[in-house]
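Posting for a labmate who doesn't have an account.
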Amino acid sequence: RKDRRRISMRTSLYRAEAAMLMLMLSTACALSFGNFPISSSQSRSGANAISGREGLQLARDIKGKFVWQLRVATNEDADAVSVIAGPSFPADILKTLLSSGHCIVGESGGTLVSAAIVNNFNGIVDTAKGVSGGLEERAELLSVMLADGAPAEMRSTTALGALKRLKLNGFQDVLASVLVDDQRNIEFVEGIGMEASSTEDTELKVFRASLMTMNPDPQKKILE
């Protein structure tokens, strides 16, 4: 199997009905930004994940440039996304995450080539007051995945697509957490406009993007 490059992420869920999802995500504790081995799969939406042995065949225009598009993910993409993600994100968990309307996938010629996984949750407004201080909906970037053989720039474009989608959906900011020694992915999240935020965790670096003050632009239309 080819190496998988991972970026560790954590999420906090406050809704009781999401307790099982929280447990599985904290157990997996992996947000992936690298290349992955791909095996045969097809989701009900028609997006495929092609076997690495077959090679990733991206659509091209008459000038030879790659042709691909971004669209809002649905729970029907779970199987194809799970193939790219590997064991970190089982299809059953992905169905819940992808049904939010906040996640983005990239496709080329009917083949799923990238995915940005976002989790939205109710966060405490004032930590000093706890739940009595009120809750607000927040978002965390859990994973940005790229199919093995896909151009690296598709990764950042997909991530920016997710940030743009969150802004359009009314979120004011988005969080992400990266292992302190994962310099490659620290540079990645910084490259999409996220800034380091304070945290008491010694193993993770927390990043935040203020969507109110930034204009995330994937330079691609996001299809529904």
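Reply:
Got it, the structure tokens are right above this. Residues 1-54 have pLDDT under 50 and may be disordered.
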